[in-house]
Amino acid sequence: MNSQLIYTTGANHPANLNEWLSCSTSLTDKLQAIIGKVELKVLNQQWTDVDWFVRHMLHVDDQSIFLREILMNGCEHHYWYARTIIPQSCYQIDPEFFRRLENESMRNLIFDGQRVKRGLQQCYSISEFNIEYHWVKKYLPFINATLWLRLVQYQLDDKEHFYLYEILLPDLERV
């Protein structure tokens, strides 16, 4: 993972997001404990070519990645957008493991077993000047605020890495 960000707003995160940004357990479980029913909406799930951003920021040398985008909703609010990037070399370690994403959440793969280990994490603010911001705007065009992102690197079977971007949305600040 590249620790040199291309652009950050330099803003300080709101105090009420601190526990969400620093959470090392499931954000889904945390949200569900507070509001009750939550809904994961899969926006996109497909194989795609590695782009400049993934190659530069995550140092992925593979030709393709498995990309998954979701929105976490509940009580008619949007709480976060998540983007999972699984390089082909990681996916090929155990395709059946990742095929579970057809019917399960990433939460199950990460937290319901011993195969996935949490690695590096970065948290930073994003605005319209960041590529990451436009991932969200594609699905939620009405968003018009500085957002907070956390990027976590995970490792499968002590071998290859995959990455999870979680962009916290303004409704989460009010939880």
UniProtKB/TrEMBL annotation:
InterPro entries the record matches: Chorismate--pyruvate_lyase, Chorismate_lyase_/UTRA_dom_sf
SUPFAM superfamilies, per database record: Chorismate lyase-like
GO molecular function terms attached to this record: chorismate lyase activity
A GO CC term assigned to this protein in UniProt: cytosol
Biological processes per GO annotation: ubiquinone biosynthetic process
Keyword annotations from UniProtKB, A to Z: Cytoplasm, Lyase, Ubiquinone biosynthesis
Pfam families given in the database record: Chor_lyase
Protein name as annotated: 4-hydroxybenzoate synthetase
Biological source species: Legionella waltersii
Gene name, Swiss-Prot/TrEMBL: ubiC
